[in-house]
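Q&A FORM
Asked by: J.P.
Topic: structure of Ferritin-like domain-containing protein

PROVIDED:
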Amino acid sequence: MNLIKFLDEFTTDKLQEPNTSRRAMFGQLGSLTKKAAIAAVPFGLATMSNKAMAQSSSSVVDVLNLALTLEYLEDEFYAMALDSGVLSGNAKAEAIYMQISKHESQHVDFLTAAIEGSGATPVAKPTFDFTVGGAFDPFNDNGAGPATAYAQLLALAQAFEDTGVRAYKGQAGNLMGNPGVLTAALQIHSVEARHASEVRRLRGLEGWITGNQRGAGMPEATQAVYDGATTEANIMQGGLDVTSLGSGSPFTVDASTQAYDEILTGDEAVAIASLFIVS
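REPLIED BY: S.T.
REPLY: Here is the structure written out as tokens.
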């Protein structure tokens, strides 16, 4: 797991290198060509002016490439989950994973087209290890029984979706100078939030996050998803203690943390994703 190499992908020099390992465009969604994909990108996104790019010194492209890396991770994870056979026999879970897989594939293609349409180079797709060096085995029962693999598939999906939600939100401020990109990012962000809630429901949990709790059965390694610079347990919003709001009895701490979703910084999102990246 080479975090330095991963971080290096987001330097200006690396962004200028040709992409040699990116997934073929729209592989799961039909025979649309790259040209059609770029044409489908909102005009304001595909034609980011030199002035807008200079304003942020490539930070917009950095944000899009960070988002693309997270989408690569989710896209490959769901595709491997569906191919593994672990979901066979659970029609509801398989249908949900299938639909989420389609969404993540579209997100990859959309972000790739947006980056290329702006004249930049999409970051190369990393090589992922969803076992984290053998700590997990979500695609094989490996003698432990299919229930164990299934539980790990759900736990990892929750961690990835919760990371995506917080990471997209954390980058919103860096996109304020480009409304087209910001709008597109927020549209993906809200869908990732729906994914996170759906996966939590599959695990028998509530659809929202309580404090910095990752939920029963979640590996300790995923705790960073719920901590970070601004932990999900935060009860101070806009300088106000939100447990003091409401008529009658104050809101409980748990309810107050559930009502607000916190960010992950770019560095925090990279650190989490790097756990699953080998090159």
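FOLLOW-UP: Residues 1-57 have pLDDT under 50 and may be disordered.
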